[in-house]
Structures are given as structure tokens and as C-alpha cells.
Design brief:
The protein is built from seven helices and six strands; from the N terminus they run H-E-H-E-E-H-E-E-H-E-H-H-H. By secondary structure, it is of the alpha+beta class. It binds iron/sulfur cluster (2 copies).
Length: 236
């Protein structure tokens, strides 16, 4: 008779907690609302834009069960959280900051970056990347490329949802995949963007890059053939 009572008691505890969760929500006026937002029925079928997903965080005030309804909700990531590198272009003028100096490729420990430098129609080098690739399967997310870049052009992205069903071509990220606007970077890394170091660095880099570009273009003024189109960003 006595055997099995423990199991029943355990179920009763679980049931009590289950019912209390509803009761607390109703008492606090939460009803059917979702913690992270998106209360409309249509929100169940609408995927929010990247970065706009409702974010929830457990803190000392959290009461009852805490479940993150991923992917509709997600935990916030810290600003310094890093996955793959991204290449920044300036929102104001569309200029790709990278000068194809190759420093990031040299310092990359597993050697997963490679690029080619753009050439003017005359054959002189132009401080822009023509191609830029990163093998995401090899990248170990160390962030050294970003630390060493003298042009503030390569930063670490937060996007960790990179899995897919193809393991070859789509795992090589090209220039188009890597480009993001400075506006996007400022939104995802507000502390770094507003830091005194980065503000000063941006001023220096803009000047340095402009001088190099002017020098390179001066060497190709008499060119006749049309220039190769500047790569367009894949992400805004
Ligand atoms: S990302 Fe920076 S370090 Fe890498 S090639 Fe471009 S400018 Fe040089
Ligand atoms: S994060 Fe590290 S491993 Fe990845 S590309 Fe940059 S330097 Fe290479």
C-alpha cells in the first residue's frame, strides 16, 4: 500500500507548481501575454527582423517557471560575444573600410581568411578588396583579425544561427555575406562604437584611407577601361 506513495507525492508537487504558474500570471495580470512581446496572433507566424526579436532575461525578481521560447524569444547576448567576423562599410558614403592590406589574414591562427586586392584599369593596386573570403568551419572565433585591423574594418558579429544543410559552398563566406553597415555595427555594439578609442580611431582611419585612395586613383587617371563595380553590401 505504502509503495508508490512517493511517486504520487512527486506528481502532486509538479502539479502544484504547474497550476501555481497559471495562478501567478493571472494575478499579475499577465493573462496570455508573452513576456518578450509579440502578443498578436499574427506574431505566431511572423518572424521578426534580425536583432528585433523579443529578448528576455531571468533576474532576481523572476517568479515561477522561466522558459525562453526560443526562437521566438531569446536571451540577450553580451556586446563582446563574438562568432564570425564581419566587414564594415560606412553607411554615409557606402565606402568599404577594408583596404585589403592582408594583415588580418596573416594574424589569423587557423589561416581561414583569404582575399585579393582590387586593381585599377591601369593595373595599379587600389586599396579595396576585390574578393574576401572566410571559411566559417575553420574560424575559431578568436577575434584576432578584429584586434589587429589597422582600418577598423573587421569586427566580430553576434550571429550564431549559421547552421544549414550544405557543408561546402555556403560555409565559405564571401565579401557579400560579410559586409554590414556601420549603422548595424553601432546598433549591435553601442558601447564600443561610442568609446573614446573608437571615435578617435574612426577619424584617423577615414583620413588615412582617403589619402591612400586618392593616391591610388591619381595613378590611374588616364585609364580607359571601366572600373570593376564596387561590391554592394548584402546586409543593411
Ligand atoms: S579587414 Fe582590416 S586587416 Fe583585414 S585586409 Fe581589410 S583592412 Fe586589412
Ligand atoms: S576570428 Fe580568429 S580564426 Fe576567425 S577569422 Fe578572425 S583571426 Fe581567424
Amino acid at each position: 500500500m505504502v509503495s508508490g506513495l512517493g511517486v504520487i507525492r512527486g506528481h502532486m508537487v509538479t502539479m502544484r507548481r504547474f497550476l501555481l504558474t497559471f495562478w501567478r500570471d493571472i494575478r499579475q495580470g499577465k493573462g496570455l501575454s508573452r513576456r518578450g512581446g509579440g502578443h498578436l496572433l499574427v506574431d505566431l507566424f511572423r518572424k521578426p527582423a534580425r536583432g528585433d526579436e523579443p529578448r528576455v532575461q531571468q533576474d532576481f525578481k523572476t517568479d515561477g517557471l522561466f522558459t525562453v521560447e526560443y526562437p521566438d524569444e531569446r536571451l540577450p547576448v553580451y556586446e563582446r560575444f563574438r562568432v564570425l567576423p564581419m566587414l564594415v562599410y560606412d553607411t554615409e558614403d557606402g565606402n568599404v573600410r577594408c583596404t585589403s592590406c592582408n594583415i588580418c589574414a596573416k594574424v589569423c591562427p587557423p589561416q581561414c581568411i583569404w582575399m585579393t586586392q582590387a586593381k585599377s584599369p591601369k593595373g595599379t593596386v587600389v586599396p579595396l578588396p576585390e574578393d574576401f573570403y572566410i571559411d566559417m568551419d575553420v574560424c575559431m572565433n578568436c577575434g584576432l583579425c578584429s584586434e589587429y585591423c589597422p582600418f577598423d574594418a573587421i569586427k566580430m558579429d553576434h550571429n550564431f544561427e549559421l547552421s544549414n544543410y550544405e557543408r561546402h559552398q555556403t560555409h565559405i563566406f564571401s565579401l557579400q555575406d560579410l559586409l554590414v553597415s556601420s549603422e548595424f555595427y553601432a546598433k549591435t555594439h553601442p558601447e564600443a562604437w561610442n568609446s573614446a578609442d573608437e571615435v578617435a580611431e574612426r577619424g584617423k582611419v577615414a583620413k588615412k584611407k582617403d589619402q591612400r585612395l586618392q593616391k591610388a586613383l591619381a595613378g590611374s587617371k588616364t585609364a580607359a577601361a571601366p572600373a570593376k563595380p564596387v561590391p554592394q553590401p548584402a546586409r543593411a
